[in-house]
Amino acid sequence: RKMGAEAYTYVILLTSKFEKNDRLIGLNSGADDFITKPFDRSELSARLGVAQRILRMETELRDAKERIEEKRNQEIEIGANIQRSLLMA
User: Taking a C-beta distance cutoff of 8 angstroms, is the pair 34, 27 a contact?
Assistant: First the structure.
């Protein structure tokens, strides 16, 4: 989490610890989910599906933010052009 990657990294903690407090420490340290050992393949598959949905939504939000920023920059440029044209008149 401290790496500051641009894209979100979904972290699944694989642990042999069953105590609630141990899992809470992992989640509070930045893990998004956890699976205890031994793990069931179908459960892992389902949790990976959740991770994919979250990462897809994160990508869509980041793309939308970039489009909004582009529009904002275009509007600023248009406004600056209008102001320049008014000053020249």
Answer: yes
